[in-house]
Amino acid sequence: MRTLLVGVGAVGGVVATRLRAAGVPVVLAARDAASAERLRASGLHVSGVGGPASAAAGDVAPLDALAEDGGFDLVVLATKARDAIDAAPRAARLLAPGGVLLPIQNGGVAQVLGDRLGACVLGGLSNLGATMAAPGVYEQRNAGHLLVGELAGGASERAERVRAWLGRGVEVRATANLAGAIWSKLVVNCSVTTLGAVAGRTLRDYVATPVGRAAFERTYDEALSVALASGARPERMLVEPIPPGWSGRSVPGPAHEAWVASVIAGYGDARPSMLQDFDRGRRTEVEFINGYVAALGPRHGVPTPVNAAIVEVVEAITRRELAPDPGLLARIVQAGG
User: Fold this and answer.
1) Which terminus, N or C, of the chain has the lesser number of Cβ atoms within 10 Å?
2) What is the predicted pLDDT for the residue at 69?
3) What spatial distance separates the first Cα and last Cα of the chain, rounded to whole Å?
4) DSSP string, 140-202
C-alpha cells in the first residue's frame, strides 16, 4: 500500500520510525518546509517501550507540497485533532481510487471526518503513549497499539488489509465495534484526562477529594449516557466501561468502589497531555472530547451541563484567564446542579 503519514509529532513519529525501521515505505508530511528539513537532517529515533529503533526520514515534505495526484492507497492522519480536521480534505485529494483515509485521533474526529468525507474514511484511534523530545527524537511510553475499524461497525476486508500493512511496524488491531472502542476511550478522556488537566493533578490525586470524586463521576456518567443514547456499545479496554449496577448514574457500594479502584489502577498516575498544551499556549482538543459529548448530548435528549462547563473552563485556561487548579473542579460540579 502506497502510504502517507501526516504529522510527525509524538505518536506519528513513533509510528513513522517503527514502520521505516521495519522496511515499510512511507512518505511523511511535516508541518512546513523547515520541519521537513530538520527531520531529513536528524533522522528518526525511538527509545522506550518496544525497544530502540532508528531510520532515515526518507521522503518528507509539507502536505501542501505533495501533488494532488499522489495516488496514495493509505493516508494516516497522526496530527492533533484540529489539524486533522483542517488537513483531511487536502489529504483525501491525495488518495488513489479506493484509497483509505485513517484518522487516529482521540474523541469524535473519525466520526466527524466520516460524516464530511464519506466512504474513504476508515475509523481509527491510538492507544500509543509517546513523547517527542525534539524533532525526530521520540520515546514510546507504553505497549499500546493502533485500533482500526469501520465507523458503521462490522468487519471489512480493507480494515484487515490496513491492519496487516501497518502491523509490520507497530501493533495494530482491527475491531468490528470501533464506535464502542472510541466511546470507551472518550469517556475516560473526558473524566480522567481533561479533569486532570483542569486540576493540574493526576486522577489519583484529585479523585481522593470529595469534590474531585464528584467531578469524576458526574463527568463520566454524562459521557457514558451520551454514548449509550447514540447507540454505541462501549467495550472493555483497560477497565469495564459500564460501572456495576449503572443505570444512568453511578450506584454507590462496594462493587462501585472496586470499579473506581480499577480505573485508578489503570489511569491514576498518567500526566494529562493537555497540560502540555496549556504550558505551550496551544489549542487543546477539548472540543473533540468533552465538547463532542456536550454537542451530541442534546441531540439524544441527554443533558450535559458538566461537560459543557469543562469546555468553558479549559477554554478560559487556554486564554490565560485561569490557571489549572483543583479548586476549579468545584465550579464544574456546581454546573451539574
Assistant:
1) C
2) 61
3) 53
4) E-SS--EEEE-TT-S--HHHHHHHHHHTTTS-EEE-S-HHHHHHHHHHHIIIIIIHHHHHTS-
CATH number of domain containing 135? 3.40.50.720
pTM of the full structure: 0.85
Residue 75 in 3-state DSSP?
Answer: strand
Residue 280 has a pLDDT of 84
Give the integer Cα–Cα distance in Å for 298 and 81.
Answer: 23
Residues spanned by the domain of 323: 179-335
Confidence of residue 29 (pLDDT cuts 50, 70, 90): very high
Domain end residue (candidates: 124, 141, 176)? 176
Instruction: Grade residue 88 by pLDDT with cuts at 50, 70 and 90.
Output: very high
Query: Among candidates 271, 272, 282, which has minimal Cα distance to 319?
Result: 282
Same domain, 183 and 166: no
The answer to whether residues 193 and 311 belong to one domain is yes
Cell of 253: 457500594
- Per-residue pLDDT, averaged over 224-241, amounts to 89
How far apart are the C-alpha atoms of 317 and 290, rounded to whole Å?
A: 15
Share of the chain above pLDDT 70, in %: 99
Cα dihedral 11/194/217/268 (nearest 10): 50
